[in-house]
Amino acid sequence: MVEWTDSERAIINSIFSTLDYEEIGRKSLCRCLIVYPWTQRYFGAFGNLYNAETIMANPLIAAHGTKILHGLDRALKNMDDIKNTYAELSLLHSDKLHVDPDNFRLLADCLTVVIAAKMGTGFTVETQVAWQKFLSVVVSALGRQYH
Amino acid sequence: MSLSAKQKATVKDFFGKMSTRSDDIGAEALSRLVAVYPQTKSYFAHWKSASPGSAPVRKHGITIMGGVYDAVGKIDDLKAGLLSLSELHAFMLRVDPVNFKLLAHCMLVCMSMVFPEEFTPQVHVAVDKFLAQLALALCEKYR
């Protein structure tokens, strides 16, 4: 089981309490598709992903980014058992969506960059440590049920 | 994954914009590396302190960023330009190459914090590719 200090819990809760899911979700997924273009392989049905401009203007991508970000709410509400919280989602990504789990890490890195831009100096060293710890636990849980 | 001419221009342009803050970003990036990835402190056991924000860490972050800027000037032939640095990393420092990626990530985070408007996805991909090419050039002499 992952141990969380009070400070880490407070930091994670604070980030989510002021999070603009639409803005951050859209920006993170778009950035992932642009910075790591091979991730576009999972979005064949999402319309025009021809270049950075069309990706950033694509409403289906924007909506999906929001959806993904809301997926993190489960981890937030169950920080003491993220592993089991994501068991079902992990199977979904493995068996139905066939997503290479390395992509979770790529998206997590993009999310971190976007949050850093939003928070500026507020994204302190302590904040980054807690945030990346949280994301790495989520990423690990999502990859856990692959077989 | 080599850089297009446009991406090279993007990198030069962004690093130009960044130059007044490059020391800060370098110092912050290394501080975040040792904080977020504590295993990286193993390379700094000989320092008085390797904790985030400490003087040796900040100073070394600035040194590293200086090296990165130097590499921007050699962007058209990083392998040749970074030959002696590669020898240093291969035979003396022997830093495991995985750590170049970790530091690159921390640099990107700091760039994003300090230049939220300018660090667009297009700039991000160009800089990320550049840092990856830089790391490859540094690894050239490893084996």
Automatic annotation (TrEMBL), chain B:
One of its GO terms (biological process) is hydrogen peroxide catabolic process. Keywords: Acetylation, Heme, Iron, Metal-binding, Oxygen transport, Transport. The keyword Transport applies. GO terms for molecular function: haptoglobin binding; heme binding; iron ion binding; organic acid binding; oxygen binding; oxygen carrier activity; peroxidase activity. Residues 2-143 form the Globin domain. CDD domains: Hb-alpha-like. GO terms for cellular component: blood microparticle; haptoglobin-hemoglobin complex; hemoglobin complex. It comes from the Eukaryota. PROSITE patterns: GLOBIN. Involved in oxygen transport from gills to the various peripheral tissues. Belongs to the globin family. This is Hemoglobin alpha 2. It comes from Boreogadus saida (Polar cod). The lineage of its organism: Eukaryota, Metazoa, Chordata, Craniata, Vertebrata.
